[in-house]
């Protein structure tokens, strides 16, 4: 047996505790990333579902699909109100489109989900899509 009194009486430094053996963790970086978010869009009524949970429909749903499609195809995250109003695929009314109201509603719905997708308003007339997770946009032709 090793005598610690002998060790310290010789002026040796305090022995450090043996380090614990390193455990190999089954938790990896791949497990830390959340799974891909499935966004399903139904063009018939503009309904949007996030992982099979209803989010929104109508013009706000078409806006969300437009933002996500631009993001997945070209990485675009900033959108201007003038550009949004010019898109014919959104089917915005010609008169009093209430774009701001629809964007506010969409922003609130995304915030309620506390998910990895949100809309920010960095300045007037501009919308920023923030995506913190991989997204897969699915367009369904049937109900």
Would you give the CATH topology?
Arc Repressor Mutant, subunit A
Helix content class: 25-40%
What characteristic shape results from the CA principal axes?
A: globular
Number of helices: 5
Low-pLDDT runs of 5+ residues are none
What is the mean pLDDT? 82
Structural class: alpha+beta
Beta-strand share of residues? 15-25%
Q: Can you tell me the number of structural domains?
A: 1
Tally of strands: 7
Oligomeric state of the chains present here? single chain
Q: Please give the alpha-carbon distance between the first and last residues.
A: 78 Å
Overall radius of gyration: 27 Å
Strand order of the largest sheet: 3-2-1-7
Biggest sheet: strands, sense, closure? 4 strands, mixed
CATH class: Mainly Alpha
Q: What's the SSE pattern?
A: HHEEEHEHHEEE
CATH structural architecture: Orthogonal Bundle
Describe the protein in words.
By secondary structure, this protein is an alpha+beta fold. It has one domain (37-139): Arc Repressor Mutant, subunit A. 33% of the residues lie in helices and 22% in strands. It has five helices and seven strands. The protein has helices at residues 4-9, 29-32, 59-74, 81-86, 99-113, and strands spanning 37-42, 47-50, 53-56, 78-80, 117-120, 126-131, 135-139. The protein has a four-stranded mixed beta sheet, covered by helices on one side. α3 crosses α5 (99-113). The longest helix has 16 residues, at 59-74. The protein starts with a helix and ends with a strand.
């Amino acid at each position: 047996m090793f005598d610690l009194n002998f060790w310290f009486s010789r002026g040796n430094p305090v022995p450090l505790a043996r380090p614990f053996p390193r455990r190999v963790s089954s938790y990896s970086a791949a497990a830390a990333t959340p799974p891909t978010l499935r966004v399903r869009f139904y063009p018939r009524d503009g309904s949007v579902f996030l992982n099979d949970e209803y989010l929104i429909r109508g013009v706000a749903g078409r806006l969300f699909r437009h933002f996500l499609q631009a993001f997945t195809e070209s990485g675009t995250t900033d959108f201007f109100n003038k550009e949004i109003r010019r898109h014919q695929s959104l089917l915005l009314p010609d008169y009093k489109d209430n774009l701001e109201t629809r964007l506010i509603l969409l922003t609130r719905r995304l915030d309620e989900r506390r998910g990895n997708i949100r809309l920010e308003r960095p300045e007037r007339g501009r919308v920023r899509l923030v995506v913190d997770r991989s997204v897969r946009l699915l367009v369904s032709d049937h109900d």
